[in-house]
Design brief:
Blueprint (H helix, E strand, L loop, with lengths): L12 H11 L3 E2 L11 H12 L12 H15 L9 E4 L1 H13 L5 E6 L5 H7 L3 E6 L9 H7 L4 E7 L11 H11 L5 E5 L19 H4 L2 E6 H4 L8 E4 L2 H14 L5 H10 L4 H4 L1 H15 L6 E3 L6 E5 L8 H12 L1 E2 L15 E5 L4 H12 L2
Helix pairs in contact: 2-11, 3-11, 4-5, 4-10, 13-15
Bound molecules: 4'-deoxy-4'-aminopyridoxal-5'-phosphate and glutamine.
Length: about 375
């Protein structure tokens, strides 16, 4: 009899909700992906590199020009000095980077602090490596972290703490005070940090992204992960990267080389060239802030109540005025009876905490948002 390594895991909530949405021909605001096109210049660049013969294995760490462009970007944005030769690894999406980082450092019996709600790939990766997730919850409805609780969760067995800002699914972002509290907690410990910053360029209302890479005291113990999929509307291309000091990168690359060996060559070359135009990622926050504001204005008269979103392309909406069904039940009914798909955030909690809110993705064409909002306002 086959003994499952992940007995409690089924298919992800993103797969379930996107399928249900397709089956019922609903407007899909569930899984996080844009429904608008990739910049034509980026498509031309991929085509150019494919047609000019760049179709074989990339170097294991990623093509050098892309690592150099990433180093330049993080230096300009965060004053972070990562060596492209030994401290940057290009990966097959942030998902692979998260898995490689966790696998590189988590041993049997190590504890890993996970802040809930948490992106769904963290805990399975911890468990597959014999680690023990230790959960601390964001305080609903502000989604703030009580750092005293985090401090209490740290033991002599804590190997890693996983952070994510801007935060999926809540839209919360770290403040300077959060980082100060984190520094204080890890200061005299050997706890490592895994910072998931895939939404680094999608942050609103004039807030700045508190990248861990800005803080030299934290950099020495941190893996910082990002994804080109979010930044360039190319979630299907699956390219991300990991920044980490050389000692950590060396262990990270030992895993990466046997997970995938290397990532897609022509796409890496295309991103490297496209990144020369810094305006694309520098203007992304404005682009998505307009989307967020449009969506909020459109649903103003509905019975859904928004919870403030400061970053990412997800908006949490409280439906407690409409129904007292569980978020899973209500999200399914929303698809089947009203034609709009969302994500029930209980899927991001190990005990399936339910606050009668749903997560809606606003990375959509204006016409898609108009149609979805019209339906939401009729409920
Ligand atoms: N972390 C978070 C918080 C995400 O929302 C996503 C999006 N899927 C990922 C990681 C994975 O990114 P990628 O698609 O590059 O694997
Ligand atoms: N990050 C995306 C989301 O949160 C989906 C990722 C996935 O489907 N694995 O919706």
């Amino acid at each position: 009899m086959l003994r499952s390594k992940l007995p409690d895991v089924g298919v992800t909530i993103f797969t379930v909700m996107s399928k249900l949405s397709n089956d019922h021909n609903a407007i899909n605001l569930s899984q996080g992906f844009p429904d608008f096109d990739v910049h034509p210049d980026l498509l031309d660049l991929v085509n150019k590199y494919m047609r000019s013969g760049h179709n074989q294995y990339a170097p294991m760490q990623g093509v050098s020009i892309l690592r150099e462009m990433i180093a330049e970007k993080v230096m300009k944005l965060y004053s972070a000095g990562y060596d492209p030769g030994s401290e940057i690894t290009v990966t097959s999406g942030a998902t692979e980077a998260l898995f490689a980082a966790i696998t590189a450092v988590v041993h049997q019996g190590d504890e890993v602090i996970v802040l809930e709600p948490a992106f769904d790939s963290y805990v399975p990766a911890i468990k597959l490596n014999g680690g023990i997730p230790v959960y601390v919850k964001f305080k609903f409805p502000e989604y703030r972290i009580d750092w005293d609780e985090v401090k209490q969760a740290v033991t002599s067995k804590t190997r890693l703490i996983i952070l994510n800002s801007p935060h999926n699914p809540t839209g919360a972002v770290w403040s300077h005070e959060d980082i100060a509290a984190l520094k204080h907690i890890v200061m005299d410990t050997e706890v490592l940090i895994l910072s998931d910053e895939v939404y680094e360029h999608i942050i609103f209302d004039g807030l700045g992204h508190e990248s861990i890479s800005r803080h030299p005291e934290l950099v020495s113990r941190s893996f910082v992960i990002s994804s080109f999929g979010k930044t360039y509307h190319t979630t299907g291309w699956k390219i991300g990267y990991c920044l980490a000091p050389a000692v950590l990168s060396k262990e990270f690359q030992k895993v990466h080389q046997f997970l995938t060996f290397a990532s897609n060559t022509p796409i890496q070359l295309a991103y490297a060239e496209f990144m020369r135009n810094r305006d694309v990622y520098l203007n992304l926050s404005n682009f998505y802030q307009r989307k967020r504001d449009r969506f909020l204005t459109l649903i103003e008269k509905s019975r859904f109540k928004p919870i403030p979103c400061y970053g990412t392309y997800f908006q949490m909406l409280d439906y407690s005025e409409i129904s007292d069904e569980s978020d899973v039940e209500f999200s399914k009914r929303l698809i089947i009876e009203h034609g709009v798909a969302s994500i029930p955030p209980s899927a991001f909690y190990h005990q399936k905490d339910d606050h009668n809110v749903l997560r809606f993705c606003f990375a959509k064409k204006d016409e898609t948002l108009n149609k979805a909002a019209e339906k939401l306002c009729q409920i």
